Amino acid sequence: MDNKEMKRQRLLSVDGVQLSENTYNIAIGLTLLWGILINVGMAFFLTPYIVKLDLRIIVIGYLVVSFGSFFMIARSHNPAVSFLGFTLLACAMGVLLTSFLTMYSTSTIYSAFLATGIIVVSIMIISTIFPQFFLSLGRVLLFALLGSLAVELIGGLIFRLNLGIMDYVMVVIFGGYIGYDWAKAQEYPKTLDNAIDSAADIYVDIVNIFIRILSIMGKKND
Predict the structure, then answer these.
(1) 179 within 8 A of 137, measured Cβ to Cβ
(2) Cβ 73 vs Cβ 47: under 8 Å
(3) pLDDT per residue as tens digits for the range 133-161
(4) Which end of the chain has a smaller Cβ tally under 10 Å, C or N?
(5) 3-state class (DSSP) for residue 143
(6) Which domain does 212 fall in, by range?
(7) pTM (2 decimals)?
(8) How many domains in the chain?
């Protein structure tokens, strides 16, 4: 049984106070909003400090904190612990995002943010209408993501190929993941802990889409 399936079984078996469907989805939305606000705040107030950090420190710190936060989120049945893990994840993502944003103009960042929001909301609506379609994409998305990462690693880093098309491919893949993770979230028992755990999955999808759209728009403006 793989990690995704183990997590799914754990979420399905978790005991906790059952929320109404609306309250559950609002909890997911508010958790996502909290992560986005952390990232926006870091970009506005911490950019001068983050840009001074060595890139190796940023990457190593990101890997350590993100893996630790995912462990907290995945293993905990306590909403407070899961929320702390989510907050740490958002902070780790925020450092990485802030260092990345310095390469782009404010107008490009704003346009990418708006485009990401439109894509995310649209896919969530479609996933709500056709949940089974997105749930059937689990393995397809996993293999597509692994294959795309391999292409970028081998073609981009080793052979120095121009792989701008991969940004579009990744937007499609992570867009599919948003639909998949949203549909999965609706299958879980509607507890606060499950809402936070599901928000963490969707949050990572959103950040990846935003980064890819930013890269696409940045190249068009060059």
Answers:
(1) yes
(2) no
(3) 999 999 999 999 999 999 988 887 777 77
(4) C
(5) helix
(6) 3-221
(7) 0.89
(8) 1
